Amino acid sequence: MPLQKISEFDTDYHNTLGKDIKGMGVYVQGTDEKIGTVSDAVVDDQGAFRYLILDLGFLIFGKKVLLPIGKSRIDSTADRIYVVSMTREQAENLPEYQENTALDYDYEERVRGVYRTPSVESSAPLDAISTGAVASTAGLTTPTYDRNAYNYGQEPDLYDVNAHEDQTFKLYEERLVANKQRRKTGEVAIGKHVETETVTVAVPVERERVVIERVTPKDAGKVVSAQTANFGEGEVVHVELYEEVADVHKEAFLREEVRVQKVVDRETVEVEETIRREELDVDAEGRTIEEKTGKLPKDRI
After folding, report:
1. pLDDT tens-digit map of 28-44
2. Cβ atoms within 10 Å, residue 39
3. FRET label pair with 139: which of 92, 171, 192, 223, CA 20 to 30 Å apart?
4. 251-293 pLDDT per residue, tens
5. pTM beyond cutoff 0.90
6. In a domain, 104, yes or no
7. What is the CATH number of the domain that holds 111?
8. Phi-psi domain of 139 (left: phi exceeds 0; alpha: psi -120 through 50; beta: other)
9. Per the structure, how many domains does the chain have?
C-alpha cells in the first residue's frame, strides 16, 4: 500500500475536505495543552487517511512524527485535533519523520510499535489469536502481523476513523440560480426619403392697357385765339403700360420633428427545472441503505 502526502494524491484536497487540515493545532485530549501542529497528512493509494504528520515544537523542539489517524479526534468547529493517549515518553520514542523518510513497512512498524499497547489476550485481534500469532509477556499479549498480508483494518485502534467523535458528512443540494442574458430580438431602421408632387398656385396679376376715348367738350364751337390754337404736327403723348407676372420660387420650411427613443417593457417569466437534494439516511439496525430501502444493486439481484 504505497503512501503519499495528501497534496500529492489530490492537488485540490482543500475543496474536497472543505478546509485545510495543515496548520491545525494539536492538543492533548480533554485539555487545552497544545503539543504541536499538523504539518501534513499521509494517505494510501485509495485516498484514505493513515497518518498525520505532527510538528511537536511545543513538546519536543524541532521533531516531526507520524500520528496514526485512529489516535486522533478532529474537532472541526474549534479547528483542533486532539491526540488520544500520547505520552511524552511515546513522543520521544517515535522515529523522527523527515522529508526524505521512506514510508515503507519497516518504518511504519517502528511507528506502530510505539503506539501499540499490550493488552490481555481476550482483547487481541481475533485473527491473531486464531492463528497463534501472539507473543506473550507476563500475562499480556502483543499481536504480531505478517508483513506480506498486513492491512490497516487489522489495527482499528490505530487506523479506524469511524469511531471519531467529530465527523463531517456533507449533504449537497441543487438550487436554481436565475440569471439574465441579453439577446437581440430585432432592429428598427428609421430614415427619411423625399416624395414629390405637383401643386398649382393661383397668383392674381394686373396688366395695364390704354383706353382711348373721344368726347365732345361742353364748350365745343367756342372761338379761341390764334395763340391758343396750336396747330402743328409731331405732337406725341407717351403712356407707359405695365403688367404683373407670376414670380414663383421654392423655400424650405420646418414641417415637424420626429423623436426616436426606446422604452423597456417589464414582465416576469417563470422557468421550471428539476433540482436534486441529498437527504440523510440513518439506519441504527446495522443494515445497509440498500437493504433498508430494498433497492439492491443489479449485481446482487
Report:
1. 888 888 888 999 989 88
2. 18
3. 92
4. 999 989 999 999 999 999 888 889 888 887 776 665 655 555 5
5. no
6. yes
7. 3.90.50.10
8. left
9. 1
